[in-house]
Design brief:
The complex is a heterodimer of chains A (273) and B (302).
Chain A (H helix, E strand, L loop, with lengths): L15 H4 L2 H17 L2 H19 L3 H10 L1 H14 L16 H27 L2 H11 L10 H31 L9 H32 L18 H29 L1
Helix pairs in contact in A: 2-6, 2-7, 2-10, 3-6, 3-10, 4-6, 5-6, 7-8, 8-9
Chain B lengths: L1 E10 L9 E11 L3 E5 L6 H8 L7 E6 L2 E2 L7 H7 E4 L12 H11 L4 H14 L16 H13 L5 E5 L7 H18 L2 E5 L3 H7 L2 E6 L2 E6 L1 H5 L2 H6 L6 H11 L11 H33 L1
Parallel strand pairs in B: 3-8, 3-9, 6-7, 7-8
Antiparallel strand pairs in B: 1-2, 1-4, 4-5, 9-10
Helix pairs in contact in B: 3-4, 3-5, 4-5, 10-11
Classes of the chains: A mainly alpha (273), B alpha/beta (302).
Chain lengths: 273, 302
């Protein structure tokens, strides 16, 4: 009954982007988002779009998977675009009806805004499509390791996150099982009004909670039995280590940032001159 | 009176690039008043098969009939079917939710829309069938032992008065005593009330001991469908399917190989005992015959 639910949206293929260290991808995504706000002028955005297209191509993920993420922000985008069009001061587009309140400056702003938003979503979608949630947690833990000096329990938070992620599919499976078992005893989850439906959830939710607690207790016991004691002196089975391609990727990012900056000043000079 | 499968095929994800047939063209009839065993290794399709029997899963192709009526035709009362074909899942104690044992057993009959009186009568009957007396009624199901919880869960399905009772590995994770108790009770129930029991099991011993008919499922197909004795004659084929014959069958075969004059055709401990005793007494007769001859020889040597 409940299937087809994937957590995160990891798309499993083997590609250079998939193989990158999760820290590289995290830093890369943040840098890309920053670059979108730094960039100015047609060429700056072209460069950003080019970089994005290159990474998408390298990732070997079909493009339609990227655009799924766009659907969810379509409404936000429409609202902000129309606000920009109508509420930016400047020269009106034309002197007829609604066009009177639209300005050329607003249009320009709206177009840039839309492009920025789309690329922002695509950029971060790429990361979640090519990195498993667990790798992402690992990357966050290592990447934010410096916060430990400020007594932020980074390791514990990362551990909690990965356990939670691990448990979601298990609980979904469990829900399916219990639903079937109660259906076999004549339970009806599908008909009736809201009150009846909520009441019908009781035979599902109570066993589900009990099983979640049982699993959590079992897991805690198993961790205890393996002498788990949190962060101190803990080693990893697959420690994150930068490889050649990771360094290469950092190099590309630096080059990209420099390019964006140069294009920005060139554009500014061009506009001024 | 029967559950009938006609060319039932079930595909897990019909849209997936590689179509995986969990059940492949299965035709099967299970008449009333039988004790049927189903064996097959993990992932063979047993669980999918039994979930077709009470309409929890809809076949991709083919029809499932109950008493001659297609259960997936429009307006067929599926909920009523589920009370007539009771299904006890693996680890059924995980479905308990009420504050006390009695209320939990009442859940099934309550969903059938009976009167309060009938509901309570059914629950009492069901609980006594699984051997739980009144001292359990007001106890929380969560403070019982594993075996007791499981009996409460089975009673929860029995309380719906099903004509068919399907049990998916009812003894998994129980100790030997709990296992024998549950199976003995189910077997007695089957004989006394004439319902059909379908027992899915990993234990060859259990199906050999209780089932009248044994269905072997492998890779979505039915490989054997015969009496346990006949099925267990195909030892090598069963082993190829990742299954086996009961241990006593191997014992009998080994003894025969060592020269005991006995049949390999045993499937239960009782049969094995009889066969071994018979072989031993035959042996003794032989030996005492030899002994007399030897004595005579000794005499002549004198």
């Amino acid at each position: 009954m409940i299937k087809d639910i994937t957590i995160g949206q990891y798309y499993a293929v083997d590609s250079p982007i998939h193989r990158l260290d999760p820290r590289v991808k995290l830093v890369g995504t943040v840098l890309f988002i920053v670059s979108l706000f730094v960039a100015e002028g047609v060429f700056g955005y072209l460069a950003a779009a080019g970089a994005l297209a290159f990474v998408i191509h390298m990732s070997r993920v079909p493009f339609r998977f990227m655009t799924r993420g766009l659907k969810s922000i379509l409404i936000i985008m429409l609202i902000s675009v129309s606000f920009n069009i109508f509420f930016t001061e400047g020269t009106p587009v034309a002197d007829v009806l609604i066009l009177r309140s639209m300005t050329w400056e607003g249009l320009e702003k709206a177009v840039y805004m839309a492009i920025r938003l789309i690329m922002l979503i695509l950029g971060s979608t790429i990361m979640t499509l090519t990195t498993t949630p667990n790798a992402l947690t690992d990357g966050l833990e290592k990447g934010l390791g410096f916060l430990k000096k400020l007594h932020v329990p980074v390791h514990e938070l990362a551990m909690m996150m990965s356990i939670a992620l691990r448990f979601i599919p298990i609980l979904i499976e469990e829900t399916d099982k219990i639903m079937k078992a109660q259906t076999a005893r004549g339970a009806d989850f599908e008909s009736g009004g809201i009150i009846r439906r909520i009441k019908a959830m009781v035979p599902l939710l109570i066993p589900l909670f009990i099983s979640a607690f049982r699993r959590a207790a079992d897991l805690a016991l198993a961790m205890e039995a393996r002498c788990y004691h949190g962060d101190a002196n803990r080693t990893k089975m697959k420690p994150l280590r930068y490889e050649h391609c990771d360094r290469g990727a950092y190099g590309c990012m630096a080059a990209y940032l420099v390019l964006i900056l140069i294009l920005k000043f060139v554009w500014k000079g061009w506009i001024a001159g | 009176m029967a559950i009938t499968f006609e060319h039932v095929t079930y595909i897990y994800e019909p849209d997936a690039p590689v179509v995986q047939k969990v059940l492949d063209d299965i035709s099967l009839t299970i008449p009333g008043n039988q004790f049927v065993g189903i064996i097959g290794h993990t992932g063979s399709g047993k669980s999918t098969l039994i979930q077709h029997m009470n309409g929890l899963i809809k076949p991709t192709e083919g029809t499932v009939k109950f008493h001659g009526e297609d259960i997936w035709q429009k307006d067929y009362p599926l909920r009523q079917l589920r009370s007539r074909v009771g299904l006890v899942f693996q680890y059924p104690e995980h479905q308990l939710f009420e504050e006390n044992v009695f209320k939990d057993v009442c859940f099934g009959p309550k969903n059938q829309g009976l009167t309060q009186e009938e509901i309570e009568q059914r629950a009492k009957n069901a609980l006594s069938m699984v051997g739980l007396d009144e001292s359990f009624y007001k106890r929380s199901p969560f403070e019982l032992s594993g075996g007791q919880k499981r009996r409460v869960a089975i009673a929860g399905v029995l309380a719906m008065n099903p004509e068919y009772l399907i049990l998916d590995e009812p003894t998994a994770g129980l100790d030997p005593v709990g296992r024998d108790e549950i199976l003995d009770q189910v077997s007695r129930l089957q004989k006394e009330s004439g319902i059909t029991v379908i027992l899915v099991s990993h234990s060859m011993e259990d199906v050999a001991r209780y089932a009248q008919r044994l269905i072997v499922v492998d890779d979505g197909h039915i490989r054997f469908d015969d009496t346990p004795r006949n099925v267990f004659r195909h030892r090598e084929e069963l082993e190829k399917l990742g299954l086996s014959a009961p241990q006593v069958t191997y014992l009998a075969a080994a003894l025969k190989k060592r020269g005991f004059a006995m049949t390999e055709d045993v499937t239960t401990i009782r049969e094995a005992k009889d066969a071994i005793l018979q072989a031993l007494s035959a042996e003794r007769e032989n030996r005492s015959g030899n002994g007399i001859q030897k004595k005579e020889q000794v005499k002549t040597d004198d």
